[in-house]
Amino acid sequence: MLTHTVLFRLPRPLDAAQRADFVAALQAFAADAPLTAGPVTVTTDLGLRDPANPRVADASLSTTFADVDSFTAYLNHPRHQAMVTKVLEPSGVTWLSMQADTSPS
């Protein structure tokens, strides 16, 4: 199994309406994310640290894939590409992703 986790940071100053719209778009994507092997989880920051801190993310998305081939196909899938080009890039969102082997040992 491969777990794909993405941390998102919205532009500052942080606008509550923009954040709500962004999280709604993430949740809509997560409800029907292509090629995943498990649930897609969207979480939001609790606001416990100063949002001006450049190390604070606003939201995350995490999902699993059966294997590397499934993950690679996901990256190129039209639904994923639309999320990147129609939501992430126009919103000025920055993100970091990490892929980890989470196969049972």
Note down, in words, how this protein is organized.
With 105 residues, the chain is an alpha+beta fold. It has a single domain, classed as Alpha-Beta Plaits, CATH 3.30.70. It contains three helices and four strands; from the N terminus they run βαββααβ. Strands 2-3-1-4 form a four-stranded antiparallel beta sheet. The longest helix has 16 residues, at 16-31. The N and C termini lie close together (11 Å). The model has no long low-confidence stretch (mean pLDDT 95).
Structural descriptors:
3 helices; 105 residues; alpha+beta; four-stranded antiparallel β-sheet
In short:
By secondary structure, the chain is of the alpha+beta class. It has helices at 16-31, 68-76, 78-88; strands at 2-9, 41-44, 59-65, 94-101. The protein has 3 helices and 4 strands.
Return the CATH architecture. Answer: 2-Layer Sandwich
Total of DSSP H or I helical runs spanning 4+ residues? 3
Biggest sheet layout? 4 strands, antiparallel
Strands across the major sheet, in which order? 2-3-1-4
Low-confidence stretches: none
CATH fold annotation: Alpha-Beta Plaits
Shape type:
globular
According to DSSP, the number of beta strands is 4
CATH hierarchy, class: Alpha Beta
Mean pLDDT: 95
Q: Nearest-angstrom radius of gyration?
A: 14 Å
Q: What structural class results from the helix and strand content? A: alpha+beta
> Which percent band covers the strand fraction?
25-35%
| Helical amount | 25-40%
Number of domains: 1
Element pattern in H and E? EHEEHHE
Distance between the termini: 11 Å
InterPro entries: Dabb, Dimeric_a/b-barrel
Organism: Pseudonocardia yuanmonensis
Pfam families: Dabb
Domain Stress-response A/B barrel: 2-100
